[in-house]
Amino acid sequence: MTLAAGSAVLVLAQSPAPASPAQSPTIPAAEQPRISRDVPLGNGEVWATTDVELQPGERAVFTAAGTSRCAGQAGAFGPDGIPRGFRDLLRMLPLPQAGRGAVIGRFGNADIAQPFVIGTGMEITSPAGGGLALGINRQATDACTIGVSVHVDVFAGREGGPTAARLVESISGITEALFEKLPRRVSDKQGNPGDMINFLILGSRDGMQRVFRTAGWVTVDADVAGALVTGILNSLSKEPYLTLPMSQLYLFKRPQDFGWAHAEPIKVAASRHHLRVWQAPETLIGASLWVGAATHDIGFDRDQRTNGITHKIDPNVDLEREYVEKTLTGTGLVAEYAYVTPRDPIREAKTATGGEFLSDGRLLVLRLSEPVAADSTAR
Questions:
Q1: Measuring CA to CA, which residue among 349, 306, 318, 313 is closest to residue 187?
Q2: Which DSSP string do the residues of 79-90 spell out, in sequence order?
Q3: Which residue, 127, 155, 183, sits at the end of a domain?
Q4: Considering the domain boundaries, does residue 2 fall inside one?
Q5: Contact between 132 and 34 (Cβ < 8 Å)
Q6: Are residues 174 and 150 located together in one domain of the fold?
Q7: Which among 155, 181, 208 is the end of a domain?
Q8: Containing H/E element for 63?
Q9: Tens of pLDDT, residues 170-197
Q10: How much is the pTM?
Q11: CB 183 within 8 A of CB 251
């Protein structure tokens, strides 16, 4: 990140607080696990796949024991890992909030799964199910001798827990009459057409925010000045700066209501998944309608309007639409989803900065798992 000439930023770097040791879970004597496994973790890859497959809403209880050693670190450490000190701040780990060498886990697709810390023990409910992977919170290049084993018990889900999203052919209220009222593309402040609308969400404001946060998306900073300070502080405190600002684009005569980002921490400046969301004037089946445009930044390009520097997006915007689907339906908070093709679909166009993009023209529609009732957030 580059500061403008003459800028001055006071940076106060603090060592992060050590992670609190996890409490070993207790299992009721009368409850029997559906699956029970002991998984030793080796010195090879950071992640080890297992044969444990969870269904949506099932509960996994972990306990870990043993010690490990890593190069450059004096002494052995247990499953909680080593609290990260000042010299370790720039090391990029799968789970930055956990100690180096801590036992970690994830469910489902490796490209979208959100890691969680296990430490000496913990319990977690899997939102959408999937295969279990276990690992040690370290870089792939770290020379470590791992002597840790993890025991996992899987229990049936509790009534009222998360359920898998259903892929359906259509969703109530999503009609051609609706598409005739909705803008099909966003624009910049000057009115130049840009990214296409490629997904819709039916749900309350709280529900919309909950599903994105549960899926690991973060809200994006609104102003560049604040972002510069935050970016430097977070670089020194090992937190991946996902909230790098995105430009304002317009729909319904106003800039986005929310910006969300998902990124590989080490590549966030040039490459990240990001999207913008606006609340539509319409409500459908008693819920707010959220209209979104999602693209994937893959580097930098020349802004053909100003000859300046702008982000370059992956021209296949359908891949980003599908990324949104996978991350959100994996939360257990989506009741159903569908792909809908409106009349006269957009298949090829340019962004407001001149970059080309291609699409099959379909929109992703997601209905959240919420009671069908009047939404107080409706405009």
A1: 349
A2: TT-B---GGGTT
A3: 155
A4: no
A5: no
A6: no
A7: 155
A8: strand 59-70
A9: 999 999 999 999 999 999 888 988 899 9
A10: 0.72
A11: yes
